[in-house]
Amino acid sequence: MRIFAATFLSVCLIFQGLTVFASAGSPLKELDRMADEALQLTKFSRYEEAKSLLEKFAMQFSEEGVKDGRLTMDELRVLTASHHEALRALTNIHMSDEERINRVTSFRLASDAISSTHQPMWVEMETSVMKGFQEVKNAALEGNKEAYNQHLNSFLSTYTVIQPSLKIDLSAERLQKLDSKITYIDKYRGDFSSQDWAGHLDSLEKDLQQVFSDPHKDETDPSLWWVITITGSIIVSTLSYVGWRKYKGQKQQRKRKDLNH
């Protein structure tokens, strides 16, 4: 029973650690709020204020965001790159207002993808992405190269906004498959006279739909699940062993009684 008690205590400590880990994410929520405020300032063309807020984000992120290894290296890399692009957009005098908003929006969505525990914000762009792709597909089916190029450029611009978030929420294999198909239709523009091209567009459309219909990722560290599984196995083994010893002891006790009689 001592072994069982110790094992049970270990499991309790593991799940207590999970609770602490979840509550430890509060600094990320504050950083997410700052990212949202920076986006709102950008939409109102208050670029200097937005820039100052992003710089403050960077300082606070370096202190809180990477503390205790809460984020993976991939998440750190994606968010840092997205932050850099947003900051560069606010200081580039040659960039259009629309492109500035797009890049800051991309950063804001990436920040949310890291801090959100439920449905991420980038899923809300499903209508824009799918509508843009449908226009690309219609132009291809009609054989209209000029319209195809125009709609494809618009679709790629919209897709770029959510791409950093996808890097956070999707597996590398799933994202690579999606990106390769998008790269293909961009690289071979106008080559949609064959039936294979229509099939390629259908395949890409299906992948896009699946991405938006199943956006959730498993937030739990796989190594943690491994520990829980092993611990559970130990509990089962311990209970089985205790039960077996008890059964054997009772059997021997009955045998001794029979011999005495």
Automatic annotation (TrEMBL):
Signal peptide interval: 1-24
Membrane-spanning residues: 224-244
Keyword entries, A-Z: Membrane, Signal, Transmembrane, Transmembrane helix
Domain of life: Bacteria
Protein name: Sporulation protein YpjB
Recorded name of the encoding gene: ypjB
